[in-house]
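Protein: NUDIX hydrolase
Species: Terrabacter lapilli
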Amino acid sequence: MTTSAPPEPGSGRLARVASVIPAAGTLPWRRREGVLEVALVHRPKYDDWSWAKGKLDPGEQACVAAARETLEETGLVVRLGVPLPSAEYPVLDSTGGPATKQVHYWAAQVTGGEGRLEHEIDEVAWVDVRTAHDRLDYARDREQLLALIRADRACELTSWPLLLVRHAKAVPRSAWDRDDRKRPLDAVGRAQAAAVAHVLDAYGVTRVVSSSSARCVSTVQPYAAARGLRLRTRDSLSEEGFAESGDGAARQVRRLLDRAEPAALCSHGPVLPTLLALLHPRVDSSPERGEQVGERLRTAASESMRKGEVLVCHVVGRGESARVVEVERVDT
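Structure follows.
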C-alpha cells in the first residue's frame, strides 16, 4: 500500500513515495497471585521498552506474524486472544525514505516455549500493568495496555476462539465429473490450506471439525496433521447433508460452544450463513462494539465468506451463556 505526495513545485519530478510497512505484535499476559502482568521487551539497539512485534513477511497474515514475531523475539509460544488497538507512526524505510509503520496487536496467552531470547532483544520483563505503564518508552504503546486492562475488567482476556473456515479453492465443478463430495483442491487451494494452518496455529486451535467433503477435509488436514490432532468429519456440515436438514450443522456449533475450547469448523459457502446466524444472538450487547461485531457477522453471512477465508469469533463463556465479544476476518 502506498500513498503519493504531490509533485514539488518547479521540481520537474515527483516527490518520493511514502510507503506503509505492515507489522504485528502481541501483549503477552498472565495472572500471578491475582495480579495481572504483561511481558515487555528491551531492545539494546534503541535502549527502549516496548511490545514484541515485527514486520510481516511477504503474503503473511498479520495474526500469523504477531505470533511468529513473539516467538522469535521472546522464545514464548502464544495463543492470540482479543485484538487490541493498532498503532501508526513515521519511520524510515530500507532506502532511507519516509514511511509509516502500521502495527496490529493482540492480547496473547503463553502456551509454551523456553523463553530463549532472539532477534535484537536482550531482556523480557514480566511486570504488573502499573509498572508497564511507567516503563514503556512510547506513549503510543500505552493505548494497547489500557485496552488490555479494559478487556480484563470486562472478563474478556480469558476468551476462547471459534474459527469458522470456508474451504479453500477447489477444482471447478465443470471440470469434475465424479462424486462432488470427492472434488479436490486445486493448486491455489492447496496453498491456501497451508496458510489456513498458520492462522489456526496462531489462535491455538485444539479441536478441528470439518465437512466430510474432500475439499473441506483437505483445507484443515494440514493443520490437524502438523499438531497431531484428530480431524472430526461430519456429513451434516457438507452441502448434501445440509440440504437434507440444517439441524445437524447447527448442532455442531452448539457442541463447540458447550466445549468452550479453541476450535475450528470448516464448511461450505451455502452452509456458513446459517451457522453465523446462530452466533449473532450471542453478540455482546454493549451499544457501540456490539453493533460493530454484529455487523461483521451479518456482512460475512450476506456477502458470503471467500474461499479459504477464516472468521475468528472470540467467545467468552460456554453453552447457553456464551457470548461473542469480537470478530475478525482473515483472508488466506
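Remarks: The chain is about 35% helix and 35% strand.
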